[in-house]
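Dear Dr. H.,

I hope your travels went smoothly. While you were away I took the liberty of generating a structure for the chain from your last submission, since the lab meeting agenda had it listed for discussion. I wanted you to have the full record in hand beforehand rather than looking at slides cold. The sequence, exactly as received, is reproduced here:
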Amino acid sequence: MRSSRYEQVEDGEWWLFHEGRSNRRCKIACCDCGLVHQFSIRLRAGKVYMQANRLPKETGGFRAALKRQKTEKGSLMRKNPSGLRNLALAALKRMGPMTADECADTIGTTPLSLRPRFSELRRAGRIGATGLLRRNASGRDANVWRLG
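The corresponding predicted structure, in token form, is as follows:
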């Protein structure tokens, strides 16, 4: 959601307050659940103090926008399998090796729609198996894929 008025931070990502923006208050939306927090930072005697507060109204609006975006993306993917393949390749490039199910979760589609695209990408030589296996939600072992 690039057009969001909230800074979006990926899981585990470090972020930096920027000059010209209030360095004491910053609203951040979670990349997975859309929960919006306001962070306050205070410097006292050389120590950094940080406070986080949940913002329920902003969270509701942000989650509604996320849902609309996923719905629009889903309808595009159903009509265009190459779009889904491209999203999968972009996710592998950005996030690194993962299973087809993990990738489906990352791009907001179902594993059943993405697994055939992974087979197509493998046959085309665009991705390859790492040799690692991870258990998916159904309890079966699944290949971990990397860019080819």
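Two observations you may find useful: The radius of gyration is 19 Å. The chain has two domains: 7-64, 80-147.

With kind regards,
E. W.
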